[in-house]
Amino acid sequence: MKLKDISTTAPEDIKKNKTKGELEEILKDLDKLQNLLYAEGKHSILIVIQGMDAAGKDGLTRDVFTSMNPQGVNVESFKEPTKEELAHDFLWRIHQHAPAKGMIHIFNRSHYEDILITRVHGFVDDKTARQRMKAINDFEKLLTEHNDTHILKFYLHISHDEQLKRLDERLQDPQKMWKYNAGDFKESKLWDKYMKYYEDAFKHCNEVPWHIVPSDQNWYKSYIVASTLQKTLQSLHMKYPGMKK
């Protein structure tokens, strides 16, 4: 797979207003489905969100998940590892945030950072990266086979031009200035390296399939993620438990 060959925008026949209306209905349904997931307590959902800086990870989380009951949803944002975390294996800090039955957990960045930014900056070599990829596949298999966890992995696919536009907005828009980080522009210059290692991750860590989400338009990005989650929850054929005796 070559990311440059995949569009970052919605298909031309997709109408914005119609899609936004459908999204509103999907979000209403997700609220009901999430409540059912929590009540039944047999399955869990892990949503992995990856993407370049300014791809819209925070906005997606806000637009899709804030309509749900916060009692059953948890968001974890994985930043630079702490000294304690670095003293353990790279999945140690990840595993403790895996969802319990009945829960939806969202990883805003995830264990994949340990085979992405670490390779871009040469913190790990290819041999170590391959070992980590095997560990990631085993970890995801453990969750799916032994805890009825359904994993949805989304890569928010934006163009480089759109990323630079959004980064520039953080310098101009008072509501977005708090997001500004000079380091983001430095990372943006490494775009081609990031694409290379993302493609490698998609190739070797695809036992749980990836969803490549065109994300230049936020309304379409949210629609794809919400509808994918809706279909996954509907496929579980969940039922409310009866009255406790």
In short:
With 245 residues, the chain is α/β, with parallel strands linked by helices.
Task: Report what the structure shows.
By secondary structure, the protein is of the alpha/beta class. Helices cover 48% and strands 13% of the residues. It has 10 helices and 5 strands; from the N terminus they run H-E-H-E-H-H-E-H-H-E-H-H-H-E-H. The protein has a 5-stranded parallel β-sheet with strand order 2-3-1-4-5, with helices on both faces. The protein starts with 15 loop residues before the first helix and ends in an 11-residue tail after the last helix.
How much β-strand is present in the residues? 5-15%
Low-confidence runs (pLDDT<50, min 5 residues)? Answer: none
* Strand line-up across the major sheet: 2-3-1-4-5
| Text of the CATH class | Alpha Beta
Distance between the termini: 54 Å
CATH overall fold name: Rossmann fold
Radius of gyration: 18 Å
Class from secondary-structure proportions: alpha/beta
CATH architecture: 3-Layer(aba) Sandwich
> What's the helix-strand series?
HEHEHHEHHEHHHEH
The portion of residues assigned to helices is 40-55%
**Annotation, overall tally of beta strands:** 5
Assigned CATH superfamily: P-loop containing nucleotide triphosphate hydrolases
Global outline? globular
Biggest sheet statistics: 5 strands, parallel
